Amino acid sequence: NRTREESHGEQEDEWALIPDHHQRTILHVDVDCFYAQVEMVRDPGLRDKPLGIKQKNLMVTCNYVARSLGVKKSMWLKDALEILPSLVLVDGSDLTHYRQFSSEISAVAQTFTPHVERLGLDENFIDVTDIIGDYLNNSEIEGHVFGDKDDNQVHHSDPCGCGCYTRLVAGTHIAKELRQQIYETTGITCCAGVAHNKLLAKLVSGYHKPNQQTVLFPWQVHEMMKSLNLTRSIPGIGSVTYKALEDLGISTVQQLQNSVLKLLMTKFDQETSQKLKDLSFGIDKTPVRKSGRPQSIGLEDAFRKITCITAVRVKYYTLLERLLKLLADDGRIPASLKVSVRKFDRVKRFGHRETKQVPVSSSVFTMGVKGVNEDTKSYLMNMIMGLFHKMVDTKKDFHLTLVGVGFNKFIERAQDAQAISNFFSKRTRQQTDDQNSECKDSNVTKRTKFHHSPTNRKVLESFTAESSMVSSEENSSRFSSDEDCIEENFKDIYENPALLGTHINLEELDNYKGDKEVEEVIENASETRKELISPEIKMCVSDDRSCSEKSACIRLPNGIDREVFSALPGELQQEILLASENKQNPKVVKQGKVLKPKQTNHRKSNSVNSKTIK
DNA sequence: CAGGGGGACT
DNA sequence: AGTCCCC
């Protein structure tokens, strides 16, 4: 009972000859201009205005008021404002609220069935095959039907004979109900597509926009696929695959349908070749996979130009602070840290990133009764900078247009966590003669094992809270298993101990009473703070315009964005200014005992290395 | 400055 | 770690 066109494949094309019985019923739900809707729900005053959501210089989406006035998705901000000067803009760089709405929407779908697969923040595939029985008594179709009206009226029952007609009609009722519930719980409107596979459901969901739905019956598949014209409009055929096909003289879906598998196999392996052909016929056997929680959590910041190491540190530090909040919300313990950069490249322009990763010890996130604190941040910062230096040779000129940081593996199950924590504590015992290892071991075990418990949740949440610094001794045992990493990655800070002082939370000073060397580092830093960050100057720094009129203004180092600078915590502002000062006036900074005793053994010089500051 | 994510496969 | 895909 497959459609005729599905048999047009080559004889050797075995997969294509397997009939598609359309046994499944799949929904694709796609939120209308997602970011714009979220902002309109959050501020109903925006409803009637032309609204654009921007990220940097790009308007990533806009509401339908704006669209009716000639603005399109993914326009340059400049172009959008030229067309529509009255466009109201909201910055959508921080995805926090979008993530929240997104998971609420998926959660509504999950009340129907667990078979929900997320695609990006605003799309969900739902396999409703399991629950279709509850909806079979509906005879009327909800929403639109793809294709010619007359054509569909011919088939008023189930011409296919496999029961797909009845199931798809039932699917339209589920889609209707789901969209209604999403609207009631979140205030967000969606489109939906109903079909017998993911490809088709997705293709058809956008046929009537916004806030509408469409069903596709199998006998319309051929017409639908032909109407796509270019192969590029098939999900799964991206720019690279499209160009490869183009090289073979295949540009349209029809050409792909008529292509010979052997020709495709000159550019793709057999499996891929077959998949491409299947797609052109609207055949897609891929299952709807439960999405579960994200497998990575990361943040990026793009910009036009960063050329100095201090700015890099500032960017990573800022991203890391936000990332730790996301991590605390997530509740899981990460096992791997990934750092990325995008180097300026005239040819590639964008898209390409270089990345490096390292395992991170789970103890970094679980040790310490008072939770993870500033110290964890600087530990991770050193990891980050270590990876960064593997990608960028800061002794030479460099030009970055993006930095990113993320966690991409998580300790999932109690058993795994147990094994991992045992592994770490074992290593620690062998390598150090740590009397406290018993205590640490039990800490790790307990926390990791129950990392979903409320108690542990609290520990995680305290990442971001101001909390007290642990003693140096505790530090050394906590991180000793990552010794190798620290030695490599701490290099930057070794070379400029004055920077270290600026990392210290001023509220934690009491912890260092009596430690002369540490106090000295801190004093250095606090003097710097007093000198450079007086309230007046802060005001000046935060306002570009007033700054240009005042003579007392701080002159920021080249490459430092004033807006970025003013948004930073004082300690990082100091770091920048200090670094810039040192650049012009390299001076010797007296060495102090630093936070992690291991370092002192490896420090080679007391002098500030102006090269690292660039 | 396409942005700010994410996933699967190799 | 890189490539390709998706939104």
Automatic annotation (TrEMBL):
Compositionally biased spans, kind Low complexity: 466-479
Key words, A-Z: Coiled coil
Domain UmuC: 26-238
UniProt entry tagged with the keyword Coiled coil: yes
Organism annotation: Homarus americanus
MF-aspect GO terms: damaged DNA binding; DNA-directed DNA polymerase activity
Annotated GO biological process: DNA repair; translesion synthesis
Part of the full-length chain shown: 237 to 850 of 955
Basic residues bias: start-end ranges: 446-455
Name under which the protein is recorded: DNA polymerase iota-like
Region Disordered: start-end pairs: 427-481
